[in-house]
Design brief:
heterodimer, A: 369 residues, mainly alpha, D-Maltodextrin-Binding Protein, domain 2, 2 domains, 4-stranded mixed sheet, 4 strands, B: alpha/beta, Alpha-Beta Plaits, 4-stranded antiparallel sheet, elongated
Chain lengths: 369, 316
């Protein structure tokens, strides 16, 4: 390993990157866009559903029940109606997502233990239905979806309340931002090095490079190093925006967050190199990257809980660097764990990196045949 | 081991599947000379050069370059050779100076020496006012000049150039060859592939490849002398018609029209070629003058490549 040669490659990559304005813009634009998308638009816990209210009882008890529901933040009243039929019409027109109907005999029904409140839900959106389930947790009410059989009610026994630790507000952003660091790093890092070797082959630079004294490891490591800097830059952008826009907490040490990110960056960069030695065109490299990216997003626990997956999916998931990173970063940022407590996940990432780097170096030949 | 020989190859063969790209080539390239590698497209020039650099593994045969056995000792060879690829292979998004710097670093020249050498080459190769320009925006001739400068940054003993002037205007080609001769004067051995006859003519020695086989090897003068008595010039009032008449004759390899005259190449020097041509033309009622002329390298090239084509047909 000659440091001069290694530096020559690093410097060359940095200079080329500096002149590639599109790539440079994407380095910052991708994390910002994804963070905003996932943070705002894709909110798995719905809040502020447009609600119409038809309070035919209009007693202090019925008004209190309505206020309780609004206080959850799940619904926001936008319209008032006189009859349940009006609510149905509004629901059909799409003016409201949820209709809350309180019959005139609300107090009597409450005393009888029969249905006192009806919640009508736009069942065409499963996410909204899910949100209505939150309302169903409300005490002293009986709730039924439109067309669904009324649920049995037990007015005296309060339903079990669900208390979420570490994300008491059940806000998605808190869960998603740490994971998003991993998702964005997985996408960009693999792609960066994935095309790195193929691109030189396509442009004809490779024939020049392999005719020089440059060694395989100098070339491979030289190509990885500059992107580590880019990876940390992206991590910083996501963390900064996450804290600023979504008030995501960092309970553990910031250094640990960066160390964990560094491990993921290396794992992904080396995987990209391996892809690059196998692909014959940049297009192939991109396809291979997405072939890897999709299971990473779906199986890592970023979108769906790991515990609910079938055994085989869990095995595959254990092979993905993103899975281990998610455990690390959620532990550090949300639970305040330290990296040393989660050493086994860190080791998994290091092992992945070593295997990928060795495979890439071994696969790369300083030959044209 | 003969120290005066830079490259020695024996029975060099390379197959790509069923295709035999290079077929049992024996080659000896003396030091401090410009050695030309001539052949039509697809004749195996690039493949041979790549094998000699250690970039391709030969299917058969042995190679010794600068006393090193290739491909086994290819890594040791890398610091002693320069290689200029057929396609421009420098970084188009790096500037002239950055490309030179990169190559100096890759060759691990000591820092002070590297800086001096880069400055020196920028001056020598006339890039003083373009050193910040991106390589991708250079003209064809400038690109080749930069590629040559990069290939010689570590003062290699041996330089491989694969069709260095194929996309270059005539004036730049002449300048480029001046550089090559300067390098040869300084003691560098050069192996240059080309399909330009005027370039081949300037080489100290040339080797002609056809369908992967070495069909001629020697100095241009030697090779031309071998064709003595086989080239004739025909002056005729109707050259198109005379050409048809001559082509129909046995033992005529090629008839090329040059202005109003025809350049004829025959297979056998001993037969009375002049008499036969005059005879045939007279029989078809054409007035023509036939004179023997000195063979050019183009004749050598045609004679070498056509012969193998006809022998191939005979074999088939």
């Amino acid at each position: 390993m000659n440091l001069r040669r290694l530096w020559a490659i690093v410097l060359k990559e940095l200079r080329q990157m500096r002149r590639d304005r599109v790539t440079l813009a994407m380095i910052v634009a991708v994390p910002v866009l994804q963070l905003v998308l996932f943070g705002y638009a894709i909110n798995l816990n719905l809040r502020g559903l447009a609600a119409g209210i038809a309070d035919q009882a209009n007693t202090s008890g019925s008004r209190a029940a309505v206020m309780d529901m609004i206080a959850t933040g799940v619904i926001a009243p936008v319209a008032e109606a006189r009859t349940p039929e009006e609510l149905v019409a509004m629901l059909r027109r799409g003016d409201i997502n949820v209709g809350i109907a309180i019959p005139p005999d609300f107090e009597r029904r409450k005393a009888d233990g029969s249905e006192a409140v009806q919640v009508m839900v736009d069942g065409s959106d499963t996410a909204v239905q899910g949100a209505a389930a939150q309302l169903a947790q409300m005490p002293l009410t009986t709730i039924a979806g439109v067309g669904a059989a009324p649920l049995a009610s037990t007015p005296s026994a309060r339903p079990i309340s669900v208390v979420a630790f570490y994300n008491p507000g059940r806000r998605s952003a808190v869960n998603i931002v740490p994971g998003l660091i991993g998702v964005i790093l997985t996408m960009t890092m693999v792609l960066f090095t994935g095309v790195a070797i193929v691109r030189e082959r396509e442009r004809g630079n490779m024939e020049l490079l392999i005719a020089t004294p440059l060694s395989r490891s100098e070339l491979m490591i030289g190509k990885v190093l500059p992107y580590i800097v880019i990876g940390f830059l992206q991590t910083t952008v996501i963390l900064g925006l996450g804290v600023w826009l979504f008030a995501v907490p960092i309970h553990g040490s910031l250094l640990d967050v960066y160390l964990a990110s560094g491990l993921l960056i290396l794992a992904n960069l080396t995987l990209g190199l391996l892809i690059s030695t196998a692909a014959r065109s940049q297009f192939q490299a991109m396809q291979l990257t997405f072939f890897f990216f999709l299971p990473s997003i779906l199986l890592s626990g970023f979108m769906f809980p790991f515990a609910g997956m079938p055994r085989i999916a869990q095995w595959i998931s254990e092979l993905l660097p993103l899975t281990h990173f998610l455990r690390l970063v959620r532990g550090i940022m949300l639970r305040g764990a330290s990296l040393s407590e989660l050493w086994i996940e860190a080791c998994a990432l290091i092992a992945f990196t070593i295997v990928m780097m060795s495979a890439a170096i071994l696969r790369f030949r300083k030959r044209l045949d | 081991m003969n120290d005066d020989i830079a490259i020695r190859a024996q029975g060099l063969t390379r197959r790509f599947g069923k295709l035999v790209a290079v077929d049992h080539v024996d080659l000896a390239v003396p030091r401090r000379a410009v050695h030309g590698f001539l052949g039509p497209n697809g004749s195996g020039k690039s493949t041979t050069i790549r094998m000699l650099c250690g970039l391709l593994t030969p299917t058969e045969g042995t190679i010794e370059v600068l006393g090193l056995s290739i491909p086994a000792q290819a890594e040791a060879l890398r610091t002693r050779i320069g290689y200029m690829t057929q396609k421009f292979s420098l970084f188009e998004d790096l500037s002239v100076r950055e490309n030179l710097q990169f190559m100096a670093d890759v060759q691990a020249l000591p820092r002070a020496l590297a800086r001096r050498r880069v400055d020196e080459l920028i001056g020598e190769y006339a890039f003083a006012d373009r050193q910040r320009q991106l390589a991708g925006t250079l003209s064809g001739g400038q690109k080749q000049r930069l590629a040559l400068a990069c290939a010689v940054i570590h003062r290699p003993e041996l330089l491989f150039l694969d069709e260095p002037t194929s996309a270059v205007d005539p004036e730049s080609r002449r300048d480029f060859w001046e550089k090559l001769f300067e390098l040869a004067d300084q003691g560098t051995t050069l192996l240059v592939s080309t399909h330009y006859m005027d370039e081949a003519e300037r080489c100290h020695r040339i080797a002609i490849l056809d369908h992967g086989a070495l069909v001629a090897d020697g100095t241009p003068v030697e090779l031309c002398a071998r064709l003595d008595g086989r080239t004739l010039l025909v002056d005729s009032s109707n050259p198109r018609r005379a050409q048809q008449t001559i082509m129909a004759l046995d033992g005529v390899i090629s008839v090329a029209q040059i202005g109003n005259s025809l350049r004829v190449l025959v297979a056998d020097a001993h037969a009375d070629a002049r008499g036969r041509l005059l005879d045939a033309l007279a029989r078809s009622g054409q007035q023509a003058a036939v004179e023997p002329i000195r063979a050019s390298l183009e004749d050598v090239f045609v004679a070498a490549t056509r012969r193998s084509a006809t022998s191939e047909e005979a074999a088939a």
